[in-house]
């Protein structure tokens, strides 16, 4: 789901095409920027399918934009035309640190109905305002995770064996909650954070981007009724450890984006 993310869409789409994603099911939540112009060539090629998803009159299951409803809608509409679907946000980048394509990696999970992938929170890397570079090269500092520490995940799932979305991070499958990237069963109940794994799959979550962009993000959440104000020292927590695992993709991504321009 996206709202007014036009400036980020092209990098996000082209990055995930590089790592092996074939199609994108996007849910537009009342955007007013030039997202249609950015997405037009992708829609024409059949790479992107856009569903309009306005904000409901009331909060649905605790999420102002009815995100869970959008995920369930995606399952219903695309259950039969997709082998795997991953449910991630525009500020989340799914990849293998060693460069292996998603298609190749997912062959190893054919026996499972879903895979929970650790989402690592990245901070501003000292940027007060939006830098000129790519997202994946501009923010290289994240939270530090100790052995056995828990973190939220996002899901890659077999839609034919998925019942419904439980929350933004976890889906209910016909055989439980699926497995983590090590193929260990995700414990139930309740669905929530699980032990952190950095390989063979991971998600970089650019939670804040620059401090200025994070302020705008918080303002949107608060306007929607969620007082999501971070505590003191939060930005320092999010920049504790240097992590450049994703920059291996920068040259290829820059080349693709240059060709598009």
Can you put this structure into words, describing what you see?
With 261 residues, the chain is of the alpha/beta class. The protein has one domain (6-260). Helices cover 28% and strands 20% of the residues. The chain contains 8 helices and 14 strands. The protein has helices at 6-19, 35-45, 67-78, 102-106, 135-138, 211-223, 234-237, 250-260; strands spanning 24-28, 48-52, 85-87, 92-95, 114-122, 141-142, 150-151, 153-157, 162-165, 171-173, 179-180, 194-195, 202-206, 241-242. Strands 3, 4, 5, 8, 11 and 13 form a 6-stranded mixed β-sheet that branches. It has a two-stranded parallel ribbon with strand order 1-2. The protein has a two-stranded antiparallel ribbon with strand order 6-14.
Layout of helices and strands:
Blueprint: H1 6-19, E1 24-28, H2 35-45, E2 48-52, H3 67-78, E3 85-87, E4 92-95, H4 102-106, E5 114-122, H5 135-138, E6 141-142, E7 150-151, E8 153-157, E9 162-165, E10 171-173, E11 179-180, E12 194-195, E13 202-206, H6 211-223, H7 234-237, E14 241-242, H8 250-260
Parallel strand pairs: 1-2, 5-11, 5-13
Antiparallel strand pairs: 3-8, 4-13, 5-8, 6-14, 7-12, 9-10
